Amino acid sequence: MATMADVSRAAVLCASVPSVSGSVVAKPRVSVAASPFFNQGVKSLSATVSSVRSSVVNGSPLVVNMAKREEELVGIRKMSDEDINQTVVDLKGELFILRSKQATRQEFKSSEFRRIRKNIARMMTVKREREIERGVGIRESRKLDREWKRNIVIRPPPSYAASLAEQEKK
After folding, report:
1. Taking the chain, what is the end-to-end CA distance rounded to the nearest angstrom?
2. Cα–Cα distance, 22 to 61 (Å, whole number)
């Protein structure tokens, strides 16, 4: 069991260091050698902290945009509301097919569940952003969503239609 001295030696210390702009920036330090509980991972963490600190001092951005996601969002934002609704219906159909493949123990990629759910969430987020821009409240948004769900025309998703077409050709 760790004693109070071990815990205090393992604590993260902060020292104030002036930055380029003259304001005080907290420089995190980790006492690696003081405690046997820290391993190689913490040494690399301290190196990461110093690189983050140097980027704050130099003024370079800390956040790195994920290019692929940004491209997807730009593509989604270019779509009309009707296209977004139709794509969400298609993606939900894909999700249904994946669930049925899982239930019948057919071959499927389990990573597709997450990818499709995230795409649906992105599209619904863009749809809600547009509603907020128009001044639609949350209660009215839910009412519109219920009406939209009642009016959905169920049809097979494009991937299923393509697989049916391939089977007919054979």
Report:
1. 69
2. 19
Structure tokens at 155: 């049809």
**Residue 65 carries which side chain, given as an amino acid letter?**
N
Residue type, 36: P
What pLDDT is recorded for position 66? 56
Question: What is residue 6's three-state secondary structure?
Answer: helix
pLDDT of residue 16: 43
60: phi then psi, degrees, rounded to nearest 5 = -75, 150
Both tokens of 131, joined, read 């509603």
Closest CA to 2 of 39, 32, 38, 45: 38
Q: What's the pTM value of the predicted model, to 2 decimals?
A: 0.57
How many alpha carbons lie under 13 Å from residue 43 in its C-beta half-sphere? Answer: 6
SS3 call for 142: helix
- Across the 170 residues of the chain, what is the mean pLDDT of every consecutive 10-residue run? 47 45 51 49 45 52 61 90 93 92 93 94 93 93 90 83 85
> How does DSSP classify residue 23?
S
